[in-house]
UniProtKB/TrEMBL annotation:
<feature type="transmembrane region" description="Helical">
    <location>
        <begin position="230"/>
        <end position="251"/>
    </location>
</feature>
<feature type="transmembrane region" description="Helical">
    <location>
        <begin position="25"/>
        <end position="48"/>
    </location>
</feature>
<keyword id="KW-0472">Membrane</keyword>
<keyword id="KW-1133">Transmembrane helix</keyword>
<feature type="transmembrane region" description="Helical">
    <location>
        <begin position="205"/>
        <end position="224"/>
    </location>
</feature>
<feature type="transmembrane region" description="Helical">
    <location>
        <begin position="149"/>
        <end position="173"/>
    </location>
</feature>
<protein>
    <recommendedName>
        <fullName>ABC transporter permease protein</fullName>
    </recommendedName>
</protein>
<dbReference type="Pfam" id="PF06182">
    <property type="entry name" value="ABC2_membrane_6"/>
</dbReference>
<keyword id="KW-0812">Transmembrane</keyword>
<dbReference type="InterPro" id="IPR010390">
    <property type="entry name" value="ABC-2_transporter-like"/>
</dbReference>
Length: 263
């Protein structure tokens, strides 16, 4: 509880600091939203042209896209600088966090807090439209709303765990931008679309090696189509929880091996 309280205080201070530059905040928010809109429009154009991809309609693909977008927005809101740990390792700025009377991970997560308003607004809009369309077609009922919220939070935990595992590798490699491009950016981009459209070997990577598919696709099979049993939702949450525990253990190991720039 003390750690959560510290995190809340540090986040509030970081947010007040960022709001000193209001134009920069709103401009970056608008640009982020625009980038996400363009990404989804590319998918929408393909689906409107051909009607569906591997049996997935525009509304179903929109649900997958929106859920992952919202999960990513939550992860990057509460732990933005976990993704930017390379700069801390290269510049030696992590040494300053080691001197603070708070856990290093808490201090890192609370730095440079940015509310991903653009991604949140866009994700909520696409999710609402997708659910409304599927409900109007009789494919889903209102129970899909709380289930979708559950999947979003479970996915945020999973994305955070993947991000933390990748960040921890930096204690050994230092330069991890290319690795992050694979484990976070490329994997998440691929998971924005139905995983069934990919070859078997890539499906295996997105579900086994970098299990980002459990953030939206696997639980989506049950929420959207009932193709699996109800157990798929707790299974997806269990995968996220197990990966989170593993990432925290790995983080502590990496931190114990860290050699500061002054040593």
């Amino acid at each position: 509880m003390n750690g959560l309280r510290m995190y809340g205080l540090l986040v509030a201070a970081s947010f007040r600091s960022r709001m000193q530059y209001r134009f920069n905040f709103w401009f970056s928010t608008a640009m982020s939203a625009l980038i996400n809109v363009v990404e989804f429009l590319m998918l929408a154009v393909i689906l409107l042209k051909f009607g569906h991809i591997q049996g997935w309609s525009l509304s179903e693909a929109g649900w997958l896209y929106a859920v992952l977008t919202l999960s990513k927005a939550l992860y990057r809101t509460v732990a933005s600088d976990v993704h930017n740990i390379e700069s801390y390792l290269v510049s030696g700025e992590l040494d300053a966090l080691l001197l603070r009377p708070v856990p290093v991970l808490v201090a890192l997560m609370s730095r440079n807090v940015s509310i991903r308003a653009g991604e949140l607004i866009q994700g909520i809009a696409i999710l609402s439209l997708s659910l409304a369309s599927l409900m109007q077609a009789g494919q889903l009922g209102w129970i899909a709303v709380p289930l979708s919220i559950f999947v979003i939070f479970s996915g945020a935990v999973l994305l955070f765990a993947i991000g933390l595992l990748t960040a921890t590798v930096g204690f050994w490699l230092t330069r991890i931008t290319e690795l992050q491009n694979i484990t976070e950016d490329a994997a998440r981009t691929a998971a924005q679309y139905p995983i069934s459209i990919y070859p078997r070997w890539l499906q295996g990577i997105l579900l086994g090696v970098i299990p980002v598919g459990f953030a939206n696709y696997m639980p989506g099979l049950f929420v959207l189509r009932g193709d699996t049993g109800w157990w798929m939702l707790p299974l997806a949450a269990a995968v996220a929880g197990a990966l989170l525990v593993l990432s925290l253990i790995f983080w502590r190991l990496g931190l114990s091996r860290y050699q500061s720039t002054g040593s």
